[in-house]
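Justification of computing resources. Each target in the renewal requires a structure prediction run like the one illustrated here; the chain below, 351 residues long, is used simply to show the kind of job we budget for.
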Amino acid sequence: MKTKAIQIGNRVIGGGNPILIQSMTNTKTEDVAATVGQIRQLTDAGCDIIRCACPTMEAAKALAEIKKQISIPLVADIHFDYQLAIAAMENGADKIRINPGNIGSKERVKAVVDVAKERNIPIRVGVNSGSLEKDLLEKYHGVTAEAIVESALGQVAIIEDLGYDNLVISIKSSDVMMCVKAHELIAQKTSYPLHVGITEAGTVTRGNIKSAIGLGLILSQGIGDTIRVSLTGDPIEEIKSAKMILRTLGLRRDGIEVVSCPTCGRTQIDLIGLANRVENLVENYPYHIKVAVMGCVVNGPGEARSADLGVAGGIGEGLILKHGEIYKKVPEAELLDSLKYELDHWEETND
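Resulting structure tokens:
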């Protein structure tokens, strides 16, 4: 579903542009060195847009120095204090995330919007299922998809009434199916770009499953312009998961896809360890190819037939597979190095 294009720093979301991946730093924003270090790691991992919490004036002012040292757009996350939103924009934030409902009076919201309008800075209007207004909770007898959508559109209307429409909408819930329904509803009611995610998804394992199901159902309908996989863990894991979700849905074609077989009684090598090492190995290669990791030489070559490159383990040795065919046999200890050699020379041997 085509939405309005919104410029965020040096990137654009909406308008049919590729879906961009976001994450949020978990450092103290006031600690410029730590925050910049984490943002650079996230950028290298594939993060397109980064958000930093600004709970203090010191944090808002730190954005100016952080901005100088990073290459991706910087979003300031603001709750309650309108002065922090203004300070964040004055110190270089490319976008701010607010909920007008918790900023305070209309005069305070207007003060924020006036600065955003003057600097043409987008505002992400964020509504979570846990922040719904009391009247909506009463109207819908609790938290529902319809209540979330009405709340979000009501917050958007506050800013539109102030003459500003450089907006992105975010509606999130930890209830996966409620979140899916809310996105289906709001996509029919607005053309603003949507920031999609399952909030408070949980730890890496639980959060990944909930996010994959929720984001998969939403994105597969053509809904969503930028995503964040919210995990209780290292933010790098959020980027890895987001990339995998987009690749699985055919919405991104960058990077290598790794497929590996489950272990079974035929497995003669440390398949789990090998598969994990291969996943780490391929992260920095830009090729759009499939790499297979197979646990035995019995079914390995057949199962890896659709892969561009692969390894299949045996007793103390293994096979290197290229384009579904057995390419060469190497000692088990050399499997990973042999795979790396093939990747390092992939372009020159496959032109």
